[in-house]
Each structure stands twice: as C-alpha cells, then as structure tokens.
Amino acid sequence: METMDGVQSNIEKIRDLFPSCVVESRDAEGRTELKVDFERLRAILAPDLANGDRMRYRFTWPDKHRAFSLIGQPIRRTLRPCRGESVDFDATKNLYIEGDNLEVLKCLQETYLGRVKMIYIDPPYNTGHDFVYRDDYRMGREEFEATSGLRDEEWNCLRTNEKSNGRFHTDWLNMMYPRLYLAHSLLREDGVIFISIDDNEVTNLRKLCDEVFGEGNFVAIYKWNKTSTPPALSAKVRTKYEFVLCYEKSRNSNKYNGGVAEGGDMPLLNSGNAVRSIVFPKESVRFRFEGRYLSGQYDRVFLHDVIEISGGYASEDITLEGPFKWTQETVDAEIAKGTTFVIKTDRFAIRYERLGERVKIPSDIISKPECGVGTNEDAAKEVKSLFGSNIMSYPKPVSLVSYLSNFTTSNGDIILDFFSGSATTAHAVMELNAADGGDRRYIMVQIPEATDETSEAFRAGYPNICEIGKERIRRAGVKVLEEYPGKQVDVGFRVLKLDSSNMQEAYYRPSEQGKSLLDLVDTVVPGRTDEDLLFQAMLELGIPLDERIERLEVGGNTLFNVGVALLVACFDGRLGDEALEKMVELQPGYAVVRDRSGQDGTHDRDLINCRAILKDRSSRTVLRIL
Q: Are residues 336 and 188 in the same domain?
C-alpha cells in the first residue's frame, strides 16, 4: 500500500478554509500538486507578523523542520500476516506488529484514525546509548554543527563542550516528534497517552507534548517509585522515582479510576451554605467520645438539646443548627437508603459516611504503599518467573501498566504501545481483563532490534526483542488462564510484519512505466500470498486488522469474508459465476478482486461482468481491483 500524503491532505483542508491561499504547482517530475501561499495566509491570520518575524516563544532544535516533514511523507509499505507465529489467529482481537514504529504508525492511520482509547509507551530514555530508530532526516556532523551554531562562518569551533549535549537532545527529539504526532491522530477524542521517562528528557518531553497534544490537554506528571533500593551513584541524590507524563486528546471532565476505597466519610458542614436546623435520629449518629453535653454553640454548630453520649450513641435524637450541605428532606432520604453519620470530636462537626465501595481519584504518586504498583525489582521477578532468567533489562512491572490502564479504559477499548519492548503492556491487558471481566484489546509495535550476542537473551535463543515479546505473551497467556480458571480471556494475538508493498511499482505509476494496466501481466510482487493481499486491502479500506476472517471455498474459488461482510475478496485468476453469486448474496461493503488483465483476455471480461452484476444486485458494494 501507499500511505496517504499527509502534506497534500493538510493543504486540502487549508484550501477548504482559505481557497485564495492555495495554488497549483508542478513538482520535479511534472505532476500537479498543491502549494500554500504562506505570505497570503499570514496576511489573513496574523497581519502583525506578515511584515517581519517578531520575537515570540518557540520550542525548537536543529533539524526540527526535517523531523516534521517525515510526518506527511507517504511510504509504500504493508503489514503481512504471520500465522505460524500467532496464537489463535482467527479469533483473537489482539495485534503484535513487527517493524519500525514510525512506518507502522503511518500504515495504521487510515484504519485506526481516532479509534485508540489509550496509548502507553516506554521510549528510550536518552541515557547516552545509541538509538535503534535512525530516521533518514538526520543531519551529518558538519551540517549539524553549522546549523546549531557550534562553528562560525570560517568553520572555527565554537562552544566545543556543548557539541555532544546539543546533538544528544536533538537526536532524541527528532526521533520522538513525528512518532508522537502520528500517535495523536490515532487517539479517540476521549483518548489519553501515558509516557514513561526519567529526568534526562522529562523537560523536553513536556515541551514536546505541549506542542503535539496542546498545553491545555496536560493532565499530570505522575511520579513512579521505581525502586526500593536506589543506588548511590551520585554524591548528591539517590534517585527513587521516574515519571509518567499524561496528556488527553481533548480535555474532558471524565474521572480517572485510581482504585476502590472502602467506605469513608465526608463533611456535612460547608461555610457557604445557609444555616439550618436538622434533626438526626439518635441511632443514625455514631460518636467517638462520651459524656454529657449542654445546649449551646460548639464551633460552627449549635446543639439545641442536652444529650448524654454513652457507648457511641446519644440518649436522644440530636438537633443541630449550622451551615449544612443537605436539607432535612435530604437527610431523611439518605437515612432511608442506609446512610449513617459520625461525630468524631466535641466540636460536633458531623460527617456522613459513604456506603460500600467508591472509586478513588488517583494521586500523582505511584507506589506500592499508595496504590499497589510494583518496582523495577518486581518487574525483574515477573520476567524471571516466566523465562527462568532475567532476559530483559529494566522492564516495567505489569502492575504499573494495569494501574494506568484502569484509569480510563473499559470494554472494547484499544490500548496501543508502539515501544512495546518485552510486551509488558500486552501482559497487563490480559491480566486486567481476567480480573474485571473486560475485553480490552491491544496493539503492540516493536522494531526487531537485535539482542547483544553476549546477553542472556541471546544465549537463551532470542535473537531480537520481538522474539522475547511474542514469547512473553504466549507464556503470560498460559499463566493468566491458570490463575483465572473459568474466565474467558483473549490470550491470542495476530502477528503482522512490516514489509514493502505487495504491489509492483507499475501498480502505483502505470504511466511512468510506458504501459497501461491492460498491458501488465501481473501487478503483484512475486511470492506474496492471498492473505498478504487481503491485509493490504484491509489497511487501505480502513477495516480493523483484528476482524474475524472466514475462508469460503465456492465453485473452485477461494473467498475471504472479513467481519460481518465488511469486505469479501477473491484473488484467484478467474472469478467464477458461483463465487460472484456468493459475493452478491453476502452484500459486502467492499468487494476486492485481483487484476490479471492481459493474460488471456478472459479476466478483463470477468471484471466487466463482476462490476455490472454488483452494481445491479448489490448497489451498496464498492468494487476495488488490485
């Protein structure tokens, strides 16, 4: 497939709003394309800036414009299914995608635009190690030094001590910027992103997210207690915490679920309310002190009658006067529902007691005492319990991702992790679903980064990180089913691998090949399977990659029925009458067939026949030809 040209798409949106600011131009190959007249656009939107660049705050770094240009740059890539490495391929709703996450995020734009409820990522922390993600916008050393001001016009070195630090942050920002930008578009309007980070880049990440997600959509920087035994590596501080930045797609009033609290009580007095007298039945109020109390003023409350308190209760009904939140009618109704009251001191500040369990709003501290979230040491034990050895360095604990996922997600929500590493997020989603009966589904994305040949992982037979992640999901799935017997938990996953497009160059640019489609023998890359073509069609048509796929054998043809007739496809050389009749019977949203025009002339007639019959008897069906 060829991903959409984000630049041209955005220009078309600008043209809809400001048609006079968009003009047609020709590229280097003579093709017509749209261009924005920025001078005219500035004159309309910011006339005070049109005549010069006034001083204003910007967050920038060398080569930022190139990193941004990658966002809209189209690619010809596809995702190929791999049944042999999957678990329960036909039924699962979970996806594991191997490949560079920048390109994978581009491939997912059509299908998952605005569909993801939560993103959690644990990207490289920029601690000084090399990056795996080396995108093609990076400057050479000389160009970097020239644009960053590290050398003067005569190429003499300036601020030599800052060179490594400047490039150090630039490389990291160049890596993160386009990925976060693409991730933003995948979130639902009520979606949320959590990003783990340490103090190396937390400041830059905050600025970057303010730009991508909007400063007004910032929620919090949670402090995660990562270790119970912080190392004494510094003479100044022993670091116990890392950070989790949280942003929403659009700021909303939804409450986050920080866990369940038992009971609890809340004040009934509020200084802003009108003063009123309320009678409380003696059996509805518990006291935490004893004695005889005369009528009179006690702090903000006036006690109307003399009462004797013994054994936690008063001898008579209690009449109090003060600025209460509730009226007598509300108090009576609450008592009828079982609400009780408590007075803890002789100031008579009465409080109402909550019934049963209630949801807590999470604090900005994430720790084992605060909310039961484990540490790096706990995460290492989790991995060791699955593999028998510590094959991953510094994994996150399952409890951290489960805790964050529980803030906002519920049944049917999609959780994306595009720096998935050892697949802790997949493990957490399965455990959370087992615990609360949910059916959340995940999308894991990981580049197949090679493991070090001296590492424990390599010696254990895992040549790259993806092999560790997939095996962890398999083993964790077995463990979840053992720990939650009788629960229906989706522990499967479909493996998809990023690859070049299934289609030959001539498919995208037939005129440039000096031939028409009618002259082509085949537009498909040799060695690609029918399922490869099916998943490319699903991507291009915006059909979720976790939809159930039914394989039908009809009259010598193989039909693929995706979802509830969302898509019916046939990639055989000829489409027989029985198969075409079955297509009509299913009334699909899309029908996809393969173009083999020019082989013997018969297929061309088949296509004409197919198009005519579908138009006549299945008018809602859109026919697509590969």
A: no
